[in-house]
């Protein structure tokens, strides 16, 4: 079979050549072998056609009328086989990978976004409740302070201090003075002695 110079495969129902056939044509039959594929419904519609179309466009492959060959794309239209055909087939081959990457990315980002939204919402609600409690406590404290300063209310004294003789100086000089300044009125101190 080493003397074959032209392999005429024209006008058959060949959609592509498998890898084994391509290898035999490229290497083992004859280095000067030309292949004629005119009139075949060559396919460029699925990923499996990528290597065949790429092989057709290699300079080392001697294909008769290479520039006039056409293939049938995914829309069942004939198109001329060019480097653009290779690019389209590569995109077809990469589509499942891109789709998987998109699914993985979305399956990570979507739950993370939802979790982040819940955390932010939880923190805001918690902060709002804390702010309301603080406002309520401040309001009560201001109201109690106002009542104590004016003498209204059910409390006679704001603070009841018990202390012993050793703490007398601290209680009178420091604590009482600070309380008087804070409450804005004189504080009565009553001491029981035993």
From TrEMBL:
The chain crosses the membrane at residues 102-122. GO terms for cellular component: membrane. Keywords: Coiled coil, Leucine-rich repeat, Membrane, Repeat, Signal, Transmembrane, Transmembrane helix. Residues 124-192 form a coiled coil. This is Uncharacterized protein. It comes from Dreissena polymorpha (Zebra mussel). The lineage of its organism: Eukaryota, Metazoa, Spiralia, Lophotrochozoa, Mollusca.
């Amino acid at each position: 079979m080493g003397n074959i110079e032209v392999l005429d495969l024209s006008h058959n129902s060949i959609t592509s050549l498998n890898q084994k056939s391509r290898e035999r044509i490229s290497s083992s039959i004859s280095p000067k072998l030309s292949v004629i594929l005119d009139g075949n419904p060559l396919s460029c519609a699925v990923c499996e056609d990528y290597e065949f179309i790429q092989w057709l466009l290699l300079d080392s492959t001697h294909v008769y009328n290479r520039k006039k060959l056409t293939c049938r794309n995914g829309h069942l239209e004939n198109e001329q086989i060019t480097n653009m055909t290779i690019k389209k087939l590569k995109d077809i081959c990469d589509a499942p990978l891109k789709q998987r990457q998109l699914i993985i990315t979305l399956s990570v980002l979507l739950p993370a976004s939802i979790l982040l939204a819940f955390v932010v919402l939880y923190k805001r609600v918690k902060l709002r409740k804390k702010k309301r409690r603080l406002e309520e406590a401040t309001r009560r404290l201001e109201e109690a302070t106002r009542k104590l300063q004016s003498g209204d209310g059910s409390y006679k004294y704001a603070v009841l201090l018990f202390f012993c003789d050793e703490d007398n100086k601290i209680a009178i000089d420091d604590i009482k003075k600070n309380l008087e300044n804070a409450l804005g009125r004189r504080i009565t101190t009553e001491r029981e002695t035993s």
